Every structure is written in structure tokens, then in C-alpha cells.
What we know:
The chain is mainly β and 216 residues long.
Amino acid sequence: MWSxxxxxxxxxxxxxSSIDGHICNVLEESFHKTYGDMFVKCYQLLMDDNSxxxxxxxxxxxxxVLQLQSIILVDRNRPVLQLDGTMVSLKLYKLFTTQxxxxxxxxxxxxxxxxxxxSPIILFTDxxxxxxxxxxxxxxxxxxxxxxxxxxxxxxxENFHFLGALERGVKMWxxxxxxxxxxxxxxxxxxADSPCHSELCGSWLLKRCIHAENVT
Length: 216
């Protein structure tokens, strides 16, 4: 997500932008920084009032975010084709037809969405082998509380969040923004000092556990 004068722009939004001095509609895929400047990776979108379809150019374009002008509302049920009338790739089809998983609508609002905050977590845990029963491992799940809240608020059950849920995005109050936002806190890695560590992390696909002996 990127905020500018015209509103909050999300991956998969369609935005009017300036490209080489021409005003174009683009389908956004992602944001990135190059030499300190923010860019959006996108694909040019062509629309014809006389055709029910929209046409995507399958050549990625990198546009400075300062050239984004306004968000364009387009019926996502319209057929999406290449200029020669053939189907676009599955990647671009999903980019056009599906909404970003963190883009969640504000309650009682049809046009407003929560801002999203990404806050990676590095977890350290100790004594994960101190269980009394091999059938029940009390340390196989972790929850998190917001330390900045008052004791009463951070002790409330609705403010306990499991790390697995945080990876999917949960609604939290942001003091900086003075409003509710969606927080996604992906777990980067787990640091631990016991044999149980490898057992816990070994159940996570595509995660790597590094064990070091005699570390002081």
C-alpha cells in the first residue's frame, strides 16, 4: 500500500498515471525502492467504451509513485485480454480479478479501507523442553500482547493474538495514525537454545533451523 494525495493505493488497484508524458491507466503489482526513490511495478491497461473487455499489456512498467494521480474504478468481472484478443497469463488474470488479502474494508463504509502496517517479528524463546508430558507440548504455540497498551487493555482477551494469526493480518489501534489499521507481523525466524527448537521449527515448511553447539 502507498498513500498519496489521491488516497491509499494498493497492489492490484488500477490507477491513472503519467508515463512518458502520456496519461495511462495501470494495474499495480508491487512497490519497490530504487536509489532512494519509490516506484510501482505495473502493467498498462487499455479500455474501450465500445468493448466489454479490458486489455492488458504484458510488459511490466516501473513508474515513480510521484506520477500516480488518481484511483480508477473498473468492473473486475469484465473479460481481460491481450491486445490480440487472447487470454492474459494466469498471473495477470489473478492480479486483475482478485483483491489483495490485506485490503480490508472499514466497517459501515463502502469506499474506505484500513491502512496496513507490516512489522516483522524475530522470536526468542527459552526452556522449550521443560514440559511435563511428551503428549502435550505447552510451548508449540505463542501469543503476543501489545506492550504499549495500558495493563487493563493489554490483558483483555481481544488483545491477545497468536503469531499465526498475525501473519494473516489483524485489526489494531494505531496511536501514530489515530485510527484502526491492519497489522501483519510475519515471523522471520525463531531463536532458541534447546533441542525442542528443531522439533518446533521442523514442522514449518520452507523454514530453516540452524543449530549451533557450544555457543557462549
